[in-house]
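worker-03 picked up job from queue 'complexes'. Input manifest follows; two sequence lines, order preserved.
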Amino acid sequence: MSTQKGRDVSGKTEQGLEEREYSVGEILKQRGVSRRDFLKFCTAMTAALSLPATFAPTIAQALDEVKRPTLVWLEFQDCAGDTEALLRAANPTVSEIILDILSVDYHETIMAAAGHQAEEALENAITKYKGKYLCVVEGSISMKDGGVYGCTSGKTHLETARRVCGGALATIAIGTCASYGGIPAAMPNPTGAVGVQEAVSGATVINLPGCPCNADNLTATVVYYLVFGKIPEMDSKGRPLFAYGKRIHDNCERRPHFDAGQYVEHWGDDAHRKGFCLYKMGCKGPATFHNCPTQRYNEKTSWPVASGHGCVGCSEPHFWDTMSPMYRRLPNVPGFGIEATADKIGLGLVAGVGAAFAVHGVMNALRKDKDPNETKEG
Amino acid sequence: MPKTPKYKHYIWELPVRCSHWINVLSITILAITGFFIGSPYNSGGSASDFSMGWIRFVHFTAAYVFVVSVASRVIWSLMGNKYASWREFFPFLTSTGRKKMVKMLRYYMFLEKKVPETYGHNPMATTAYIVLFGLYVMMILTGFALYAQHAPGGLMYKSLGFMYMLFSSQGMRLAHHLGLWVIAGFIINHVYSAVLMDIKEHDGEISSIFSGFKYRINKPE
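worker-03 finished. Artifact:
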């Protein structure tokens, strides 16, 4: 049954893909990727997509048959961190596979062409494959003053995004900046930075936030699209559920210490060396949806909490503003000094109320009232 | 010599008294466990312990009890006697209510010597209660929205979806935390005022929340 499904879907996707002679599987074979490595990759992708292991053959078959899609990668107000995360993957085979599956026709950081040639490549890709190419956007888009604060090759990012993302089959917003504005959008947001969905309202956008985005999640999203011919199911913030469907706190390897009541109190204390829960050090795992604990970074080597630092909530909208201070449990109270915690303010409030009523009570004890029953005759 | 109040007036019906005391109990438990959850001390000896787990369990259970109690009181405000009615909680909407409020406020501010006579709630108190009720709703919504995050896609998470649109998770945490301090301030006010009225009105204000009866020189209607 699953085989049948794989064939059906890959047939469907074919319309959305570049017309080339070789399928992904064939290209990989030509590049010297062994069948064994290919199947290992398919199995890893099945796991990343939270699909049952029985789907691995379906994915393998679909990738065997499917033609590789054209992809353009746009960089706006960013640090190229997501590109770095993708290119510097520890295991070269997997990153090769990623790049081999995708026909990257335009990517400012890695393309050989420059200047007019590069712009020509972009033009060619988006006119030739209009409505059929995938677009990856990295970085936020400046909206203020007509978007003049972010320009590439004389055009504002806003203009480029509307043109390229608007004509794309789907846009993958990679990283928190492209998804929700990220760090450029942090208070006071001088450039009026927003994410792709907000800038190009009509575009089909898949948000893959994270700082940086986990390259495995990007690959898995592309594989999902190639295999099933549609974009994955997403949450209310436009993130694929397979990667952002669970809270970090609920999958965390330090969770038993949280439930047990074992917490790190200071950096480098005994509890920290023993790997206890970072809750009291301001870990935002309880407020963050991401698959970091299971997928991990850099070929599953590690992730922030495993290395002893709390989660900072980088895959949540406006994390720079809403998740700070990073090393405290609760945000600062607006209008009060930075050092004033919610508890200090609350304690002050209660003490104030208590004092006010104490004074009121003393005054009441001193005054002589008329008894209500004296004047009110029955 | 003042006349001795000799008529019993049944003011607080059983559901009102029950929800009052269940609120007291659940808010106390929620406050204590809530503060522990907000800043826990190292209570676990080994990773197999479950001290935070149990404290959270107690917090969530008490939260459900609190919700049922508050919801029952809302329903009773449509079914109960006139002292329990929802109308009592909006004295500022009628002109007599506003007049009574001004009188009560003047008494509290030492501008009036005569204690305004009230059978059920005094209008200043009910105004405070409607604000408190809003605070309860806020605490319930933020609390359950944070709780539901353990199962995104679940019924509770989906029905509270608007909360995640309106607030960030950390914003909800802060509101949930500050809300309790405001409730604590209210409790000081509430207990003080009840004791004060018990002393000044000689009507058994304090015992009325146990028995339901207040004492008056007038016959009940």
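worker-03 released lock.
The first helix of chain B runs from residue 14 to 38.
Chain B has a mean pLDDT of 90.
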